[in-house]
Design brief:
The chain is of the alpha/beta class. The chain is 40% helix and 26% strand. It contains 10 helices and 16 strands. The N and C termini lie far apart (179 Å).
């Protein structure tokens, strides 16, 4: 389209639309070209017609927005990740509605891992070899922390999320906040210092929190100083950095990882409402248990009382039975019982006659039978 200017007080004045259209026309005259950079801020949605990402210069941080039709991007099947270095073939264009310069990509070729990503891989391998990411180093989080430490940025949304959910879940919780840099070249040293200060202040657990951001924004949390500071903490550390798909190296060294700052709050403090419910259930169970125990003891006392009441009678009956048995046995063994069967006891001068040789003809003897005694003479 032809760009027209309006005469105003002797000067040519272009509208914003006309200016953007003119610049876009001049940009369209530029040839297609190859550009090298690292992929960051890759954004794509199934409903979007285009894929958007940013090319970052690893040397000085210069950036260039890139847009590519989603069909062309998917056809390449590159599976690009944050930090990869690529060559993009395209031409510059201006989004006239907003006056934004961007590169319209026609094709992309993978050039290799970006400088940052390659450095991170080397650092990750080094720290893993030292055992900083070992599972046996992970410590359990305290059940009821008396003091929770929070390392986060000043006025950060992550700080508000953690504090809000901690207060909502467990109002008695005490939180000590250490505000520090969480982005930029000064962030690693500041984060490491904040972690050490909170440990010295006697916290029971530390939450390291930062909201989502670009690959470069989260680089401080993969810095060696930060990772070693997390591993050296004397108390458990929960890492809540970025979104679920982000995995800075501090996540690997931390004792627990939370996908979001909100999830970190759920990890470090219990739910007061849930605790009350559990206590109420425990109280009800104790009451029921005590009631059942009292009923069992009462039943045992009644049984013991009945046994004690009947015990003397049982003892008497048993002793009477024993006496009757003994009487019967004594009666069976008594000489009188033998006499009743027709036998007699013969005595001579008060001596029992057991043999015929003990008496002579004419001797007087006495004979005892079952119902009496009489005298006799031996013939």
């Amino acid at each position: 389209m032809k760009v027209e200017a309006t005469e105003v007080d002797g000067r040519k004045v272009y509208s914003v639309r006309a200016f953007n259209a003119g610049v876009a026309t001049w940009l369209n005259r530029l040839p297609t070209l190859w550009i090298e950079g690292e992929v960051t801020e890759l954004r794509r949605q199934a409903r979007w017609a285009s894929v958007f990402f940013t090319l970052k210069d690893p040397d000085d941080g210069a950036s260039l927005p890139v847009q590519m039709p989603r069909g062309q991007f998917d056809a390449l099947r590159l599976d690009l990740a944050e930090g990869e270095r690529v060559h993009v073939f395209g031409r510059p264009e201006l989004y006239e509605q907003r006056g934004e310069l961007r590169l319209k990509a026609l094709t992309i070729e993978r050039f290799g891992l970006g400088a940052h990503l390659a450095a991170l891989e080397r650092l990750k391998a080094k720290l893993a070899a030292e055992g900083l990411f070992a599972a046996e180093r992970k410590r359990p989080l305290p059940r009821f922390p008396r003091l929770v430490g929070l390392v986060t940025g000043n006025d950060a949304a992550a700080k508000r999320d953690v504090l809000t959910h901690i207060v909502q879940r467990f109002p008695p919780a005490n939180v000590l906040v250490a505000e520090t840099y969480v982005q930029g070249p000064r962030a690693p040293a500041a984060i490491a210092t904040a972690l050490g200060d909170l440990c010295a202040r006697g916290v029971d657990v530390i939450v390291l929190a930062r909201g989502g951001g670009s690959f470069e924004d989260l680089l401080p949390f993969s810095d060696e100083r930060v990772v070693r500071a997390v591993a050296a903490c004397t108390v458990p550390v929960v890492s809540a950095v970025g979104h679920e798909q982000d995995t800075p190296l501090c996540d690997l060294a931390a004792d627990a990882r939370a996908s979001t700052p909100t999830a970190a709050a759920r990890l470090v403090v219990p739910d007061a409402a849930e605790l009350r419910d559990r206590l109420e259930r425990a109280r009800a169970a104790l009451h029921l248990g005590a009631q059942r125990s009292a009923e069992k003891h009462a039943q045992r006392l009644d049984t013991a009382h009945e046994r004690l009441r009947r015990a003397p009678l049982l003892v008497l009956e048993r002793k009477r039975a024993r006496l009757d048995n003994a009487h019967a046995r004594l009666g069976a063994l008594s000489p009188l019982a033998t006499l009743e069967r027709g036998y007699a006891i013969v005595r001579r001068d008060d001596a029992v006659v057991r043999s015929a040789e003990q008496v002579s003809a004419g001797d007087r003897i006495s004979v005892r039978v079952s119902t009496g005694e009489f005298g006799a003479r031996v013939e």
